[in-house]
Design a protein that fits this description.
about 350 residues; alpha/beta; Spore Coat Polysaccharide Biosynthesis Protein SpsA, Chain A; 10-stranded mixed β-sheet; 10 helices; 12 strands; globular
Length: about 350
């Protein structure tokens, strides 16, 4: 039976004074073979995150059925108040875990990061600068990589096709770019021109951002998740679920995929290395809380079709893309490289 009235009936939840959420899905089923260093890498990830985020950052970790030591570690961080939310589930996959972390919250910006991300000082400040500099920015990465513009960036290429504000510019930090390629298992046999130039756009104040964004760590407008897409995600980990849940919603609203010009995070992989400890010692706490001045994104179906279907097919034409990269300033000595490598 029920006696009396629930005192919380018809009451609203307390306002949460946070502006930015970071969601990290974790899946470490054991500490063997591929996952041998997993817990050490996770600890490094979360330590770097905690050290580099401002006080209005809400940290959510979704534990996808990891072994007991991982669960105990995450619970400890939560009870210490170092992270704000821990969700324990079975292994439901990355995207379902991200979805669980978002439900019930509203933050202007949501960073989704793999559990092997090493966050560097000032990353939040620089990401917000990109959002503020480019009102159409929908997702902002922080790890420059080769040929980011080739993935779901037709809208940016279309809008800046005739503008001198989009051109190939020198890579700001080639050593950190080398670090990323090494972290994903590349040897040094790749085209070294990849370390020299990137396609960038520039605003009226001369602030630059790279065209495109990767997936292992990126910051999204909340609008990316504010959809009625309740389709079941069957993939545990994969590019299709990333596209459907993280990428297409922003694209349909006219948002750009961009990345900071310099590098503000490292990909660690599944092997713990000594440089990680050295880098942790160099991290500094943020001195300010950047404010993201976001205007609502909007796009018509016609505009979306022209930019992301018609124009995208044009960019897949070899002759067109060869011409396009030349007029955008790809150095002459690099134009001999096969078009598909750019």
């Amino acid at each position: 039976m029920r006696k009396g009235k629930n005192p919380y009936n018809n009451r609203f939840k307390d306002k949460i004074d946070f502006t930015h959420q970071v969601i990290i899905p974790v899946y470490l089923p054991n500490e063997e073979d591929y996952f041998k260093d997993g817990l050490k890498v996770l600890k490094t990830c979360l330590t770097s995150l905690i050290k580099t985020t401002h006080s209005k950052t809400f940290i959510t970790v979704v534990n996808n059925g990891s072994y007991d030591s991982v669960s105990d570690y995450l619970n400890k961080l939560f009870y210490q108040g170092r992270i704000h939310e821990v969700i324990h589930t079975s292994n439901i996959g990355k995207i379902n875990a991200v979805s669980k972390g978002i439900k019930g919250h509203y933050f202007k910006l949501v960073t989704v990061a793999d559990a092997d991300t090493f966050f560097l000082s000032k990353w939040q400040n620089q990401v917000v600068k990109v959002f503020n500099a480019f009102p159409k920015a929908g997702v902002v990465g922080m790890v420059p990589q080769f040929k980011l513009y080739a993935y779901l960036c037709s809208n940016v290429l279309f809008d800046y096709a005739l503008s001198k504000k989009m051109r190939f510019t020198n890579v700001v930090n080639p050593e950190d770019m080398k670090h990323f390629y090494k972290s994903i298992g590349w040897d040094d046999s790749y085209n070294q021109d990849f370390l020299k130039v990137n396609l960038s756009i520039e605003n009226k104040n001369g602030f630059k951002a790279l065209v495109g964004s990767g997936h292992f760590v990126a910051t999204y407008r909340y609008e990316a998740f504010n959809t009625n897409n309740n389709n079941e995600v069957k993939e545990l980990l994969g590019s299709k679920s990333d596209r459907d849940f993280l990428d297409y919603p922003i694209l349909k609203k006219g948002g750009y995929r961009l990345t900071t010009e310099d590098n503000y995070a490292y990909h660690m992989g599944n092997v713990y290395e000594s440089w990680m400890d050295d880098q942790l010692k160099q991290l500094t706490e943020p001195k300010e809380i950047p404010v993201a001045n976001l205007k609502k994104l909007s796009s018509t179906k016609l505009s979306h079709c022209i930019k992301n279907h018609v124009f995208r097919k044009l960019t897949q034409n070899k002759a067109f893309i060869n011409w396009f990269i030349r007029i955008k300033g790809l150095p002459k000595e690099m134009t001999k490289t096969p078009w598909h490598e750019w």
